[in-house]
């Protein structure tokens, strides 16, 4: 009986996933067709530069209502300037909004730009 309960808890825990990933890993993840790429910075930050294919959903303005339009069953890759807002966004997406798989760019757009320059 205990084994059955333990297996149930583990299988439920695996239904959702939040993971911080390096720019190298992020690049591989966003190359997948089904991944939804979300930039949670302000529109001004987004206009100054963004990752190709990213949808801008400002974390500070109507974030909850706007992410409800996304497909919760598909993976989501999020980023911001340095990683703080995207971490909050990712936890909110997993914990409150029912998303199942969220990848957060560790170091944000700043680290992404450095990685792109080093290639």
Beta strand count: 5
Strand/helix succession:
HEHEHEHEHEH
The low-confidence runs, each spanning 5 or more residues with pLDDT under 50, are 1-13
Report the CATH C-level class.
Alpha Beta
Please tag this protein with its features.
single chain; 5-stranded parallel beta sheet; globular; 17% strand; 45% helix; alpha/beta; 119 residues; disordered N terminus; Oxidized Rhodanese, domain 1
Compact overview of the structure:
It is built from six helices and five strands, in the order H-E-H-E-H-E-H-E-H-E-H. The protein is an alpha/beta fold and 119 residues long.
Task: Describe the protein.
With about 120 residues, the protein is α/β, with parallel strands linked by helices. Helices cover about 45% and strands about 15% of the residues. The chain has one domain: 3-Layer(aba) Sandwich (Oxidized Rhodanese, domain 1), CATH 3.40.250.10. A 5-stranded parallel sheet has the order 1-5-4-2-3. The longest helix is centred in the N-terminal third of the chain and has 12 residues. The radius of gyration is 15 Å and the shape is globular. The N terminus is likely disordered.
Write the SSE topology.
Elements: H1 2-13, E1 17-21, H2 23-30, E2 36-39, H3 43-47, E3 55-56, H4 63-67, E4 76-79, H5 84-95, E5 101-105, H6 108-118
């Amino acid at each position: 009986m205990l084994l059955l309960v333990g297996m149930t808890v583990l299988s439920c825990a695996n239904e959702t996933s939040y993971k911080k990933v390096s720019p190298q890993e992020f690049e591989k993840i966003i190359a997948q067709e089904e991944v939804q790429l979300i930039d949670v910075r302000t529109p001004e930050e987004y206009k100054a530069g963004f990752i190709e294919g990213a949808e801008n959903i400002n974390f500070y303005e109507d974030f909850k209502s706007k992410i409800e339009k996304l497909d919760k069953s598909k993976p989501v890759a999020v980023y911001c300037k340095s990683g703080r807002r995207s971490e909050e966004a990712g936890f909110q997406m997993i914990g409150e909004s029912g998303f199942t798989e969220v990848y957060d760019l560790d170091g944000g757009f700043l680290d992404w730009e450095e990685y792109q320059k080093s290639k």
